Amino acid sequence: MTTATTAEAILNTCNATQQLTDLHHISAPWETPAPLGQRGELPPFPVHALPAWVADHVSAVAEETQTPTDLAGCVALAALSTAAGGRAVVNVRGSWIEPVNLFVLVAMPPGSRKSAVFRAMTAPLLHAESVLLNRIGPQITEAEVARRLAEDLAEKAARAASSAHGEAAAEAIAEAQSAALAVEDIKVPVKPRLLADDVTPETASTILVEQGGRLAVLSAEGGIFATLAGRYSGTPNLDLFLKGHAGDPLIIDRRGRSERVDQAVLTMGLAVQPEIVSDIATMPGFRGKGLLGRILYSLPKSNVGYRNVDAPTVPDHIAARYDANLQRLTIDMHDWHDPARLVLAPDAADIFTEHRRTTERRLRPDSGDLGHITDWAGKFDGAVMRIAGLIHLAGRVEDGWRHPISADTVNAAIAIGQYFIAHALATFDAMGADPDLEAARVVHAWLHRTATQRFTVREAFTALPRNRFRKVTELEPALDLLEQLGWIRREPEPPRTGPGRRPSPAYAVHPTLHQQTA
User: Fold this and answer.
1) Is domain 50-123+192-431 in CATH 3.40.50, yes or no?
2) Percent helix, strand, coil in the chain (nearest 5)?
3) What strands, in cross-sheet order, belong to the sheet with 214-219?
4) How many Cβ atoms sit within 10 Å of the Cβ of residue 112?
5) E strands, 337-495, in order
6) For residue 363, what is the enclosing H or E element?
7) CA 30, CA 346: separation in Å to the nearest integer?
8) Are domains 17-39+434-509 and 50-123+192-431 of this chain identical in fold?
9) Rounded to the nearest 5°, which phi and psi values hold at 290?
10) Domain ranges of the chain
11) Cα(214)–Cα(449) distance, rounded to whole angstroms?
12) 3-state SS track over 79-105
């Protein structure tokens, strides 16, 4: 055996190479890592800003279903919008008028009990729909019978006119025309309809016109976006949702006739999987035409895996009060054909004016944190007023339209608005995110949470979510980026001592990573 071979054998025996490697990494100084643009913790939904009967039910449903209060809170806003949307507006100042309907979207992963929360928060709307149907049912039956009889008379008159001759013909024709007009004069009331789910824009337009200009699309899924993008028609159709958010006139041309409503008011409340948020950013026209800027976004942190499997159920008195109040608000406002006009109390107007000054500064392109999402932030103050109108009506179910919106209500609406700002910033960040950066954030969050100081690729792959990294190769770009930014450092590969699989690459972690946010 040569001297060199003997020396290598001795070094391998005492693991000198690895010890020298470890010594190098212990002694080598770390430079300050470059920021990842890591998002901090997003604020929870401000349940306290809602009227007591709504807030109590939101908290109780969230507790029973073991879901974040964000989900129940946002669906509650959509339910209030369904109850009052199209039947009330806020006169903000001068000619500035805001309808009180909202577009709300909550993004949560599968298995988050979205459907259970939707059922609990929207059930009173279905109850109200049944009450309205029972109330108008006899009128529908009476009108249908009267119309059938009138149609029979019109058919007989038409047959008589077709067979009449001479002087009798003119009189018969006049009678036939009169009978036909009598048929047209009998209007059969439309069955009340508040909600839709899996609906095309064309069908939704028809329902909305039939219902006097309002409709709510509420769903625990996000299929409506694919429909709007042209899943069935092959062509994007966003007009109804753009007009329906603004309360603009809607005209529908049908074969032989045209129908219109002066104000088309649409509510949208959706709970979707997080992937949908990224998908809609790429759908044709969604951002360019302004649809994405009309939506209030919520990205609650999932608590799956940390839930109480024996959580208390919603107390009966809380559920009953929520059901009664939401039903009453819905039924009482259903027949408001001329929208109730809400105004701000003087001190409330002053608070909102100061709030608008703050928003305006945040919109500055050079220094404002909202300057890059002006398509959304430009509608933010209007959204605050819509929320204020809903809180006001919910706080005074019996006679909210008789009273001005108070300063406390405006402050509550601003608090909810600030929640949606934080979540909108995170949402638009995710929409335009680099996939490698997003993956690096996932790894960084794991290292921060576990205070890991050293790891192998195999250890990271085992610990990280399999739905995020399905193969080891999908993890490599994230590790490369973290290393480039200085958050981790790859250790030299130890020399191979024999046949077999090469050891998994190992990384040292920046010593301050578990102490600070990137």
Assistant:
1) yes
2) 55, 10, 35
3) 195-196, 214-219, 265-272, 103-107, 296-298
4) 24
5) 340-343, 454-456, 488-490
6) none
7) 58
8) no
9) 100, 5
10) 17-39+434-509, 50-123+192-431, 136-185
11) 47
12) HHHHHHCCCEEEEEECCEEEECCCEEE
- Residue 52: which region, alpha, beta or left (left: phi > 0; alpha: psi -120 to 50)? alpha
Within 10 Å of residue 304's Cβ, how many Cβ atoms? 13
CA–CA–CA angle 154, 159, 163 (5° rounding): 145
pLDDT in tens, 350-366: 999 999 999 999 999 88
How far apart (Å, rounded) are the C-alpha atoms in residues 214 and 336? 11
The helix or strand, by DSSP H or E, that contains position 237, with its residue range, turns out to be none
CA-only gyration radius of the chain, Å: 31
Angle at 444 between CA 443 and CA 446, to 5 degrees: 65
C-alpha–C-alpha distance, residues 422 and 399, integer Å: 33
Predicted confidence (pLDDT) per residue in 208-227, tens digit: 888 988 999 999 888 888 88
CB 96 within 8 A of CB 85: no
Picking from 334, 412, 318, 341, the residue whose alpha carbon sits closest to that of residue 83 is 334
Helices (H), 247-283: 274-282
- C-alpha 242/C-alpha 259 separation (Å) is 18
Mean of pLDDT values over 373-381: 95
User: In 3D, which of 120, 123, 122 has the Cα closest to residue 65?
Assistant: 120
341 vs 57, 337, 387, 408, CA distance in Å? 28, 12, 15, 19
506 close to 490: Cβ distance less than 8 angstroms: yes
In the predicted structure, residue 8 carries a pLDDT above the cut 60? no
Residue 343's φ and ψ, nearest 5 degrees, are: -125, 160
Q: Which fold has domain 17-39+434-509?
A: Arc Repressor Mutant, subunit A (1.10.10)
Cβ 356 vs Cβ 350: under 8 Å: no
**Contact predicate 405/342, CB 8 Å:** yes
By C-alpha distance, which of 394, 408, 389, 396 is closest to 343? 389
pTM for the model stands at 0.79
CB-CB contact of 91 with 343 (8 Å): yes
